[in-house]
User: Fold glucose 1-dehydrogenase [NAD(P)(+)] from Priestia endophytica DSM 13796.
Amino acid sequence: MYNDLKGKVAVVTGSSSGLGRAIAIRFGQEGMKVVVNGPNDEKVLAEVVEEVKKAGGEATGVVADISKEEDVKKLIDTAISEFGTLDVMMNNAGVQKEIASHEMSLEDWNKVISVNLTGTFMCSRNAIDYMVKNDKKGTVINMSSVHDTIPWPHFVHYASSKGGIRMMTETLALEYAPKGIRVNAIGPGAINTPINAEKFSDPEAKKGVLELIPMGYVAESEEVASIAAFLASEEAKYVTGVTVHVDGGMTLYPGFQAGKG
Ligand code: NAD
Assistant:
């Protein structure tokens, strides 16, 4: 636990499920005030609000599609109107869809880019605008992926969005460091969330993924949420512009393990 997080205000995008949900609950355990969000899932958001409160925090839910500018405004404005300020912008929401690159329509491409990259940009921009105008030394955390580094056939839109997030993170970190605003990212490997449910339900596919993880297991969402709490906290006060890969070694070229290569 990080004492300085108590009472801090966070927005967590895409917190109706998976990693975002776990991060919202972890922020609740830290005693934070959390705006939880999803694009169309009011009922689930109400459940997450209760989970965050049960964990020890305060919470409110906002249905907002982060690929829409007016929804992003509503999301950030709610943190300020309900909880008085914004300290932590956790850009977690993301989507993916498998499709060969030569068959990918512009619509398929735009869907992933508009949520993962443009949505992350708009939430960061609005949050930083508030922080700059209110002299707030806040922090932005972007959810990237090991695919900011590892190429991923059939997911060119997704890999491009996450590679873009890495450079967005570094650029914003450099631009706002003089104002004391930190911008970092988390790059998960294979985590047990609904986004992977179909793949992990096939034992052969799961075996294939495990072969890519030197530590030999698929992590749970809480193992990523703990890194979000650390990056949000004062314990990370001199850390900006980095992507922390939470991946059991997946980015370490596992093909070279055990004398190969
Ligand atoms: P998930 O599908 O369980 O959760 C995605 C969340 O984003 C959901 O709450 C969904 O409602 C929300 N969302 C989707 N479109 C949205 C929109 N337009 N506006 C607002 N919210 C929207 O998946 P997850 O695994 O929890 O993924 C969360 C993030 O972590 C994503 O950015 C994903 O790319 C990243 N990630 C996940 C893994 C993994 O193994 N699970 C690995 C690397 C990166």
About this structure: The first strand starts at residue 9 and ends at 12. The longest helix spans residues 106-133.
